[in-house]
Amino acid sequence: MEYGQRKRTAEHTACKENQGRADSFFVCISSRSDTLIREKARSVQLLSHIFDSGTVVYEQIARSFPFRVAVRRFLASRSDHRCRSYQECASILGRLLAVSNQLAATYVCCLNPDDCAFLLEMAFHTAATTDKARRILHCFFRYAEQEGWCSGNPVAPLRVCANEEARVAVLSLEQVRQLLEASLLPQNLPCAPAVGMMLWAGIRPAEVARLSWRDVNLAEREIYVSPRHSKTGGARVLSILPVLYNWLRKFKADRSASHRIVPASWADRWRALRDWAGMTPWRADTLRHTFASYHLKLFGNLGILQQEMGHSESRLLRTRYLNMSGFTREDAAKFWNLDALLNRKYTESAMNGKELTCPAPYFIA
């Protein structure tokens, strides 16, 4: 009887062990099934995200254009800009397109910062030209973003090239005097009003070539540069300071609406005038830099100077337009005084018994 009891106890124990193994097995199977189900769910979510992303990319491509085509459309939108600005923009974008036919055929929405950096690096080799190209390319992608061709500007993250600025060229008082004396010679006299505006108002040579006498208001002592005449496309009103007023009021040029400030063949005559004054070689914007440097030296107001120059920020003015070394505040005071500048000429003329005369219709004695 004891034997039978022990046998039943052993069978019961074995049954319970088997049941435990079975439960463990089913728990393991259930856990693995849940893991598989969760992994499959994540896979489905991933596939759904990929599908949605692909749909978004497809929609972007459907609205976008290849880089080459987008550039043509961008340039067409700027066809009303001045010829020089348009040609510069077209030239830079054309050089970028010539770097890689593959990237030129890539849709704008698919171009990334690495692609843009590659194009700039391969097309341009100096810091100044690379930075100018970067700004134009940034402008292109900003237009593309506005048109819905891309969802962001890939040029924005690119690092601005460090450009070591050359020393700004500023004329000395003696050089200013030579330039004014050369402009008062009969063959150069038609250029004299423009020389005065560039020297004492900071107007660019290309801007003064677009102005007519209707833009000069001697009564209000203002010169109006309209957006159509300005390099940057923004209007500005320039002050006619006493030295410029005294210079301009001497001239008897026809101030009708159709009469321009500069004579015909302005670029050639301006170059000849500089040669006559011994100003060779000549660096671009020298008179504009001279105006800014002498203005700040005497008046000491960066805000007013920034307004006169037509700059949106003062950083550009401080880094690229000013050079106040080599002359004193007393020199700056003479720069803004016509009698002080031309005193040597008047003295020599008086000593020789000659008067400083200029032929009509450009000068009133």
What does this molecule look like?
By secondary structure, the chain is mainly α. It folds into 3 domains: 1-63; 67-146; 173-351, hpI Integrase, Chain A (Orthogonal Bundle), CATH 1.10.443. Helix content is 59%, strand content 3%. The protein is built from 16 helices and 3 strands. A 3-stranded antiparallel beta sheet has the order 1-2-3. A hairpin with a 4-residue loop joins β1 (216-217) and β2. α8 packs antiparallel against α10 (242-248). The longest helix has 62 residues, at 2-63.
Oligomer: single chain
Alpha-carbon Rg, integer: 37 Å
Give the CA-CA distance, first to last residue: 151 Å
What structural class results from the helix and strand content? Answer: mainly alpha
CATH architecture of the largest domain: Orthogonal Bundle
Q: How many discrete domains?
A: 3
Secondary structure tally: strands: 3
CATH topology type of the largest domain: hpI Integrase, Chain A
The fraction of residues in strands falls at under 5%
CATH class of the largest domain: Mainly Alpha
Helix content: 55-70%
Question: What coarse outline follows from CA principal-axis ratios?
Answer: elongated
H/E element sequence: HHHHHHHHHEEEHHHHHHH
Give the helices and strands, then pairings.
Blueprint: H1 2-63, H2 67-77, H3 83-97, H4 101-104, H5 113-123, H6 127-146, H7 173-183, H8 192-201, H9 205-208, E1 216-217, E2 222-225, E3 236-239, H10 242-248, H11 266-276, H12 286-299, H13 302-309, H14 314-320, H15 329-335, H16 338-351
Helix pairs in contact: 2-3, 5-6, 8-10, 8-12, 12-15
Tag the structure with descriptive keywords.
365 residues; mainly alpha; hpI Integrase, Chain A; 16 helices
